[in-house]
Design goal:
The chain is of the alpha+beta class. Helices cover 46% and strands 12% of the residues. Bound molecules: 6-diazenyl-5-OXO-L-norleucine. 6-diazenyl-5-OXO-L-norleucine binds next to loops.
Length: 315
């Protein structure tokens, strides 16, 4: 694989951004969480960080956005660190669904009714219930502290407007969670509203591309901070997370993304995409206009363009 250095990528970014920004017109900014709809449709930004802390950025890279489903990769990792593999995979499966990220279809159709994977909403809600802590506040705080550590940004916080908007409009997620309670995946001692509150909070953590490019770099370096040498996440859990990102990270467009870009990635309905080049780069893009699968239109185009130009595909 021919790998270019950051300077070559930097030189190409203005042209790539110009080409890809125009594609945003075909998408729509998410509005089922009303607060998300306030973001500019045509925005597009990118940040790439290498293992010696070299960083290139372009476009609307300072646009703040909430993690949404990108958070699910890291709550999965925290749940694995808190409980181990066996306990986590007793509650969530390892397979893609081919359905929308908030679908309840397979929960009823396929025994034993556990969510197919931890990156769909049902799976991530179950994962929220597995985070260690004596109260929902403590669980949400442990998640926030973990995200602060791995983003190297101790100022990141929950966007309370998005949190309130998500909580008030989450009829679908509530129905998923109550179904999971009814079928015993969320057990008797679990309070459904408390679990949902932990979930809404981690989805509503506000970041910029630089924050999540750092989180991605940690995954690219198998859980060991490349600058300090500190092992923060066990390598096995990074391996599990990256595998889910390949198979389910872009929802039911994961196959298309694997062919077009060829890197582990996770998208969110705020228009963020976190991806990585193993051993090399943490990469983050933001572009709020989404396609019908819930992924950033211009963001996916930009990653396809860069992957083709610099031969990034792992496959
Ligand atoms: O629960 C939700 O619907 C949102 N908090 C997260 C969904 C999401 O980001 C799916 N991504 N493509």
């Amino acid at each position: 694989m021919k790998l270019e250095d950051l300077q070559a990528i930097n030189a190409f970014l203005p042209e790539a951004l110009h080409m890809c920004r125009a594609t945003a017109v075909s998408g729509e900014v998410a509005s089922y969480i009303p607060e998300l709809s306030k973001k500019p449709k045509e925005a597009l930004g990118i940040c790439i960080i290498d293992r010696s802390n070299g960083c290139v950025t372009a476009g609307d890279v300072d646009l703040p956005f909430t993690l949404q489903s990108i958070s699910k990769v890291f709550t999965l990792i925290l749940a694995l660190m808190d409980n181990g593999e066996e306990a986590v995979f007793a509650k969530v499966g390892k397979e893609p669904t081919g359905d929308d990220f908030n679908s309840m279809l397979k929960l009823e159709l396929v025994e034993p009714g556990i969510p197919f994977n931890p990156l769909i909403n049902a799976g991530a809600i179950v994962i929220s219930s597995l985070i260690a802590g004596n109260s929902p506040q403590e669980k949400a705080d442990r998640i926030l502290q973990f995200f602060r550590k791995i983003s190297h940004n101790h100022a990141i916080h929950v966007d309370m407007d998005v949190y309130a908007s998500e909580s008030a409009s989450a009829h679908r997620n509530r129905s998923l969670a109550y179904f999971l309670k009814d079928n015993g995946v969320l057990t008797d001692e679990v309070d459904v509203e408390e679990v949902l509150d932990v979930y809404f909070r981690h989805c509503s953590i506000e970041v910029t591309c630089k924050d999540i490019a750092r989180m991605a770099l940690l995954l690219a370096c198998d859980g060991t901070d490349p600058v300090t040498g500190e092992n923060i996440i066990p390598r096995r859990y990074v391996q599990i997370a990256k595998t889910f990102m390949i198979t389910c990270g872009m929802y039911n467009a994961s196959g298309e993304f694997a062919i077009g870009v060829g890197l582990p990635a996770k998208s969110g309905v705020s228009g963020g995409i976190l991806t990585l080049l193993p051993g090399r780069y943490g990469i983050a893009v933001v572009g709020p206009a989404l396609n019908s699968k819930g992924n950033s239109v211009a963001g996916v185009h930009l990653l396809e363009t860069l992957s083709a130009k610099f031969n990034w595909s792992m496959f």
